[in-house]
Design a protein that fits this description.
Shape: globular
Number of strands: 11
Structural class: alpha/beta
Strand content: 5-15%
Length: about 350
């Protein structure tokens, strides 16, 4: 159990924050392997298959149990920055975290090379994570942002109307507020005095709570509530693919992929189109005010404008099966979890 001790200053500085696709990348890879995961359900509706170059990531991320923390960098400005942080992890820390993986997952020759800090193995890790980001996270990220936004709106209302104690005690069944201490049933045994630093509360695609001890800002990660996922399901079930109808299939895919910043080459790779086509499509969307482009050295980077994000948020992906609500379900229910 992890025990977080919060004083008055800590409570005053406690905030909710949205995750980035980079800190969510490895934990979403675990959720993707769990049949009951809502993230897996979301992915299976819209994806043809798991990108082959990314499969090696599953050697590092088992279906259950611990996920190597070095794969989840704290808030970063973009994918390249996040990968730089991962690949610059001290070899001793990589070795320690890989050795702590569940014994059932085994240690492959590639993982041994990673633990030794071999350059080729680290370069492959970067390629594997980039492939997973482009093939899984980027296409789904606009939907994940809507699920997270729904969760944060609900928590803001709950905090305002029911107070901090009720809010903390309904984050997850494995999280409890008792006498100035937030108890988190997570692997390990630690007492952490926040000492005025405050606590960041972050909803996640992961299916269990965790404390990001290695991050500069103490962060409690907790699973997104089923209510937030259901709201996204309902909205998607009622919508046609309006973007594809208006913009065409390729431009609609480009717009959704640019929910996170991509270079022209990354965009082409993510959508399996030529760099020239990716550049042309991005330019057309930029001329419409939906995409912004900036030069970074020899690369050209694209991301959505505020208008582009609003358009994507207003036009969920194509028709989906109607989500089934549980009888008697209320906004205070929590997501189903799997014992790890």
């Amino acid at each position: 159990m992890i025990r977080l001790r919060l004083g008055i200053e800590d409570l005053a500085r406690t905030t909710f924050a949205a995750p980035t696709p980079y800190c969510e990348l490895p934990v979403s890879a675990q959720a993707l392997q769990q049949p009951a995961s809502q993230f897996r359900r979301l992915w299976r509706r819209g994806q043809a298959g798991f990108p082959a170059p990314a499969r090696r990531l599953l050697e590092l991320v088992p279906a259950y149990g611990s996920v190597p923390a070095f794969l989840s960098p704290e808030t970063r400005d973009g994918l390249d920055d996040a990968l730089d942080a991962v690949l610059s992890t001290p070899t001793s820390l990589i070795r320690s975290e890989l050795e702590s993986l569940p014994s059932s997952s085994g240690i492959s020759p590639w993982m041994r090379d990673l633990a030794r800090g071999h350059i080729d193995a680290l370069a492959e890790l970067g390629s594997v994570m980039r492939s997973y980001h482009d093939g899984v996270m980027a296409p789904l990220w606009p939907m994940i942002e809507r699920v997270v936004a729904s969760e944060l709106r609900g928590r803001a209302w709950q905090l305002a109307t029911e107070g901090a104690e009720v809010t903390l005690n309904t984050l997850h069944p494995w999280i409890r507020w008792r006498d100035g201490t937030l108890e988190v049933h997570a692997p390990g045994d630690a007492d952490i005095d926040l000492a005025g630093r405050g606590l960041r509360l972050m909803p996640s695609t992961w299916t269990r709570p965790a404390v990001a001890i290695s991050w500069e800002q103490p962060t409690l990660v907790y699973p997104l509530r089923l209510a937030s996922w259901v709201q996204e399901d309902d909205a998607a079930a009622e919508a046609q693919d309006r973007l594809a109808t208006v913009l065409g299939t390729t431009r609609a895919r480009v717009l959704r992929t640019l929910g996170s910043e991509h270079t022209t080459t990354e965009l082409a790779r993510a959508l399996n189109i030529s760099p020239a086509s990716a550049s042309t499509q991005a330019a057309a969307l930029r001329n419409a005010g939906l995409v912004t482009t900036r030069r970074d050295g020899k690369s050209v980077r694209h991301t959505l404008t505020d208008l582009g994000r609003a358009v994507v948020a207003a036009a969920p992906d194509g028709p989906r099966p109607q989500a089934q609500r549980r009888p008697g379900y209320s906004s205070r229910s929590v997501t189903r979890t799997i014992a790890l």
